[in-house]
């Protein structure tokens, strides 16, 4: 019966091309329009684009940082959580998200997808690793966020 | 040049008496009035009282939970960060806070104070462990929050 | 100039069929014959089989456990490291191994492969996830261990 | 009914004077003579002295390192466990030890004592923080190790 906000993780690489960046930004914006908190790894690339999009829509953004310094967060993170755990922070990104949208991504993203699936979290994939039937593949940011909305209607 | 909100940790035991609870609530309320994000371990006792106080003043609250389930947070936590790290989450509480107010507390709180001091974080103590000169002892919630304000004016 | 023993991680699922178990046991045995420490997640399935094989050859075994209790380790683990980190312990398995052999496996194993690659660790795959060219695919335990030996000759 | 070795944590600061170093070395030596595995944080000071003592008696030493590189271990660590967790590794040191001997120490040691007590681990103190009745104070390395032996006779 708490008032906790619903948290959606957006995961992807720290470097990405313009197409991926535009997708991540739209995902962030649409999530914020539906009042979800956008949680990322707090750094550059997909993480920054999703956070920027969320802020454009007046949303709230959390960054789970690998390092020690909250100032390592990109400028669109409202709540920088410096963990100091380095790569082990990927497990926190997966755990703290009720559902995740994976956009493109490298090994770090793959580890987050795998950890999230291990934890029983739902993962929606947008141009990302095709590793398992358990990742729900979509084609557009709009579809990804529609799936998130549908998920929360029943959970 | 980010827009990140300033985060103040409030640490203390999961069980506390009425006097301590009232102090923690006032600390939370005063921090929120000054627009600081109130970060706690997300559970009961001091953590819940500080979060409740912050929400009374319209503030924003984060809970760094030891377990796997965001629903373990007390009802006054806006952003529940389920870490699954159990006691190792105490290091995240210390690291993610720019400055901490310790109120009473048991061994868990002591570990957070010690970790915070190790990390070079400032710790303000209100009726808590007297372990080191490095903990800045105050007598009232008002003094504790005044010290926080002073800290951020110069950091 | 330390005397530290070389550590090889053997990763794979907590449940596995007989064929996989036999392979994991042979990997463990061969690693121990070459005096490598065999590090696993300390539990059942591939982890137990690899540890059992290593002990048959008089080797030394380490288990990085997700839970709180050293007694959760399988009976072939000499050094049970209870972490209490749950799934985040996968990052420790990857980090603490200088090189890893992945045998079959589910999502947990996939997360360890991905984390290891992210950390720049070499991963040798035996009937496991085909996720990237970076995983060096082999067909037999003998080949896997030969690759490990070759790796340490040059690192 | 496993064959797991009994693990004793020895904790203390990364810098220490000669008197403390001699004590730590004797603690390590006596523990190894009784076939306990000596687990430390793997670095310098008390950690190194205890490991050196253990190796003089032919013992086995484990180092739970804060950083990414097993080569950061002192030269008397047999099994370097690189965690990459930085200060959060202190929780692993506490958790992985069945019982701990604290020798002198700074804030990091204090955090390990507090975490160990929180986890219900027994802590024996040798010239360390006097924080609680729960720490069993002894005067000599001989007494510390005698207490460890007594503990394992009943646990």
TrEMBL record, chains A, B, C, D:
Residues in coiled coil: none
CC terms in the record's Gene Ontology section: cytosol
InterPro entries: CHP00725, LDcluster4, LOG_family_nucleotidases
Signal peptide feature range: none
Protein name listed in UniProt: TIGR00725 family protein
Species in which this protein is naturally found: Candidatus Entotheonella gemina
């Amino acid at each position: 019966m708490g008032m906790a906000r619903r948290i959606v993780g957006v995961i992807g690489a720290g470097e990405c091309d313009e197409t991926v960046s535009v997708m991540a930004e739209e995902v962030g914006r649409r999530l914020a329009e539906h009042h979800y908190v956008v949680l990322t790894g707090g750094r550059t690339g997909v993480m920054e684009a999703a956070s920027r999009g969320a802020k454009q829509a007046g949303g709230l953004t959390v960054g789970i940082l690998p390092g020690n310094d909250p100032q390592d967060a990109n400028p669109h993170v409202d709540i920088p959580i410096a963990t100091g755990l380095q790569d082990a922070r990927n497990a926190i990104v997966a755990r703290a998200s009720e559902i995740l949208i994976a956009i493109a991504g490298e090994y770090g993203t793959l580890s987050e997808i795998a950890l999230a699936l291990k934890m029983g979290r739902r993962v929606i994939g947008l141009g990302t690793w095709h590793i398992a039937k358990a990742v729900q593949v979509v084609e557009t940011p709009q579809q990804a966020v529609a799936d998130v909305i549908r998920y929360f209607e029943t959970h």
